[in-house]
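Q: Structure tokens for this one, please.
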Amino acid sequence: MAGNKFMFTTGIENSYPTIQLPDGSTKRVDEMEKTDHYRRWREDFDLVKETGIEFLRYGVPYYKTHLAPGKYDWAFADETFNRLKELDITPIVDLCHFGVPDWIGNFQNPAFPELFAEYAGAFAARFPYLTLYTPVNEIFITAMFSAQYGWWNERLCSDFAFVTALKHICKANVMAMQAILAVQPEAAFIQSESSEYFHAIDPRARPIARFLNQKRFLSLDLTYGYPLNVSMYEYLLSNGMTKEEYEWFTLNQVKARCIMGNDYYVTNEHLVHPDGCTQASGEIFGYYVITNQYYKRYRLPIMHTETNIKMPACTEWLLKQWANVHRLKHDGVPIIGFTWYSLLHQVDWDTALREDNGNVNELGLYDLDRKIMPVGQAFKDLIVNWKDIIMEESYGLVFHNL
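A: Here is the predicted structure, written as tokens:
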């Protein structure tokens, strides 16, 4: 693992869901392709090193690597992960990021957990020295965008489809962790999950907001084998999950090897209307309050695994997020890392990747010409200024908890 190092981290965005185009055809959205990473990956890794970042959320495209059951193309993975090793950059391996290979179909496929676990085990065997993994990125968002909102992949819009996707993705996540541990017993797993909160806009919306504030935990509840309350248990059973499927999570969790990654953006808090509609509320509680809610529920080490905001507010937002992280650590929450996501500007996230417009979103530490942005310099300075101090505080926290 990372030992006692506090993990200042970035990531190279590697989303690859399928979307439907206006003419009815479908297309794979590949952020690594849109940001020219496949051609410039060596340069991108050098930027990580230049910034003083020692840990990188990184993964090769699952859909290009897992070609069929038991069949893989490791060419790009071999090149990239071997180079990261040469540079002494520790990957947090991102195995599945919002999409699956065409031959698997989508997250409604009940065979996905076994197929993905096979891939995870094969990856771990290929790179046995790697110990940090995010098997499936943002399970809650993946299931919501694919099967509740109808935006990606299966593009379905129902509670039944959402629960089907959710149970398959969570099972794939747990089975992948088990498969990796069979190869690398020292592995640790950093869930990168969207931390959400729903605010009732008036008293009539309180029952719906209460339901949504329970629903937001479901991906982690299943992954960690956390006991559900009656309303969520009944919701899952009434939408296709069997008692046996639910009990499987209780019997198979590997929570002891997990670090809870909380992603927080200005869009993660929502206003709830009496008719059930929601809208973005902007930052009301913030990362400190919401992460405390997640920590009190699961009592696991925490990592801030994603944040950004569009220019020109990036530097202010970075410092605000860091202040939240530092306060959590000071107050005794075992928070072990902080991430600005991502290294480069992104493309088409202004439409949540639903449209293929080629719009550059100015969110990165570097632009797509690989020139450092003000937030990149601010993050670089933050690492230099805080690295030694945060390490001293980490040791103090360990002793305090003992």
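A few notes: Residues 395-402 have pLDDT under 50 and may be disordered. Residues 287 and 359 are 28 Å apart (CA to CA).
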